Amino acid sequence: MNHKSQWLTSLLVMLLFSSLRLHAQDTLRITLPEAEKQFLQKNLDLLAEKYNIDIARAQVIQARLYSNPNFSFNGNIYNPQNKKIADVSNKTGEYIIGLQQLIRVAGKRNKEIKLAETSTRLSENRFFDLLRTLRFSLRSNFYNAYYLQNSISAYNDQIASLESLSASYEALKTKGVVTLKDAIRIKSLLYSLKAEQNGLQNQLNDIEAELKILLQDNKTWFVSTVEKNDALAVSFKQMKLPDLVDTAYENRFDLKLAENNLLYNQQNLALQKAMAKPDITLGAQFDKRGSFVDNASFFNVAIDLPFFNRNQGNIKAAKINIDQSKVVLNQQRLTVENEVQSAYTKALNTDKMLQSIDPAFRDEFENLLKAVSQNFQKKNISLIDFTDFNESYKNNILQINELQNQKMQAIETLNFIIGKTILNN
């Protein structure tokens, strides 16, 4: 090797090492509690929704404020007798001073305060329901990523073994020891495994993209880690469906949103009926010299006469809103019951299937795969048996991963449906 070739080789090695080091720096092994903590701190959808609560609370402050008094001053522009401009003097001028205060009747202010407070609860319900939805998305994607990574890793040993075997068969083929058909069969199996692994990797990349949005981190490649997963051993049979429905009634914020929306419309009807009653304006007025006597003082009372506008349209609309809210609430309750029942049934079915699998099955299968590979190289078994066993091994490992993921998804779905973490995983 000449000096130039050595230099190029050294450069390529350095670039490869730098690339691996940068990739390692951009890779984060993250647990679910760590992911949730980052999610709560950085997720922009949550932060934006939280501002709506602050806005609603500010509206409560506004509703508590009383109407401002009204002060008026009328002064003379020009006195033609004395030929004075803006003559408001006590001796020859004229001015009128008035003070008015709006008195709201029928408890309008208190009703508006209650309406604003209910509006705040509605904003809080929307926030916590969004939190429930995004948190479920985070946890669901986390476990999807975890088991996809496990499945991708399961291909590695098979691919490494087949790559070595394929290279050996290529060498034996050139010597005429093995047939072209056998060499191609091994290579075909290898390419098939690589294509399937690449498909899983693409699925993982899509989930990675969603996790980056949820965690607001577009630079890190996440590796989901589960330190201890006792949830796989939990049986759903210990749970009772009526208890789960009651828990959902107490904790589902979309249901609370429908309930508070009905309350809001009921309070709005009370306010609209109160608005039909006219407010009173009280006032006092001082007139320097423009009345029947100098320095005249007056007491003013003003009220609208409700002959035409008695707020009939708004009252009717408020009643219709109540009827609509009752329908929505009943529909939401029915939805909650059906969702709990469906999630519970799916959880039982998944649990039953997973419980039927021997926990030692995977380790035994992996040991058997090694033995089969060794026996095939010793020509104790045929190529067809070898490829069939590899295909069976791959399918079973993927199915076990999928079943375990389905159970974790069932747990997360049940937590999401009832609005409360009843199973910590």
Architecture blueprint of SSEs:
Blueprint (H helix, E strand, L loop, with lengths): L2 H23 L1 E5 H11 L1 H21 L5 E6 L2 E2 L4 E2 L9 E9 L4 H67 L5 H36 L5 E5 L15 H11 L1 H23 L4 E8 L8 E8 L8 H44 L5 H17 L5 H36 L7
Parallel strand pairs: 1-6
Antiparallel strand pairs: 2-5, 3-4, 5-7, 7-8
**Overall average residue pLDDT:** 85
Q: What's the main sheet like?
A: 4 strands, antiparallel
Helix content: 55-70%
Which CATH class of the domain at 104-276 and 311-418 is shown?
Mainly Alpha
CATH domain topology of the domain at 104-276 and 311-418 = Outer membrane efflux proteins (OEP)
Q: Tell me the strand percentage band.
A: 5-15%
Please state the overall shape, judged from the principal axes of the Cα atoms: elongated
Walk me through this protein's architecture:
With 425 residues, the protein is an alpha+beta fold. The protein has a domain at 104-276 and 311-418: Outer membrane efflux proteins (OEP), CATH 1.20.1600.10. It has helices at residues 3-25, 32-42, 44-64, 108-174, 180-215, 241-251, 253-275, 312-355, 361-377, 383-418, and strands at 27-31, 70-75, 78-79, 84-85, 95-103, 221-225, 280-287, 296-303. The chain has a 4-stranded antiparallel sheet with strand order 2-5-7-8, with no helix packed on it. β3 (78-79) and β4 (84-85) form a beta hairpin. α3 (44-64) packs antiparallel against α4. The longest helix is centred in the N-terminal third of the chain and has 67 residues, at 108-174.
